[in-house]
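Give me the fold.
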Amino acid sequence: MGGHGLGLGATLMAHVRTWRPYTLWYVGLVGLAGHAITSDRHDDARMVAAWAVPTLIWVAAHYLGDYLDRELDGVSKPQRPIPSGLIRPRTAVCCGSALAAAAVVTAAAVNYRTLIVTAAGIGGALAYNGFFKARGLLGNLVRGSLTGGALVFGAMTASDLPPVRILLFVPVFWAHDAASNLVGTLRDVAGDRAGGYATFPVRRGPRAAVRTAAGLYALAVSVAAAGLLTMTGDREGGLVSLLVAAGLGGGAFGMLYASGPEPAARLALRSHEVLVVERMVLAAVFLVPGLGGLVAIGILAPMLAVTLGTQQAMRARHEFPHGTPARPDGDAAAAPARFS
């Protein structure tokens, strides 16, 4: 399953790095949010499916996206599993395909009508990685739509068809994920510009990208607050959780605004790391009214612990080549952002 002559431990660690455990948990929480918003009675098996199917597609997209980017990574990020030889390109395709197939089978077992949403998620992830992410703001918006689809899938684990009211909440995750993905491109401006990779900050400049991301983020939080007011249950607990998320988001954007016209890559990465934590809290906001605050915390807390620990241990080494010399502003050359 790995490169030639590698030990089992090294191969397994290469796969864990491909999973990106510091971003792994979010999309499943969005699926759970869709279930919690829709259902008055919560079936454990269906809740597991609401988390598992989006997560399987998320990890499949990492494998297949890394395969599509293997030549670029060979130049700009040779430490990553495929260009370093830890995972063969064919193995990445096999793993991604197997995970996508597992998502399809699980979705069909829960509600065959979800196959449309599942297929759209898999196809959208491939289209994003293979085409859209180098197409400026359109790529960020396409990326956001995939997370909106995870919310719809979660709703369909509790209902044969997605209820009309779920459409009120889709813009929360569409706008938020577009914003988060746009912030993710800021750490790669130097490499993207040198390689002719036309992301939004390359086309319009980092400052315009920060303003656009902040606007999308404000839209997400505003719609989230409005949506919470339509829910029954512990809305007050949900609003308190939303304030926590908004505080984290404000901190992430604050460091970008304070950094000058072009944030250093490592500072942009730190901002995105905060948003990775913040978006998990945001997804958990919608678990509170339906499941209760204690259950929501019980679900969120271990996922946050793994996220924080693996961000500290793994993420910078995944994003920046080992030994890359820092520029005077603390930046380093980097290549295009992935499905993060």
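The chain has a mean pLDDT of 88.
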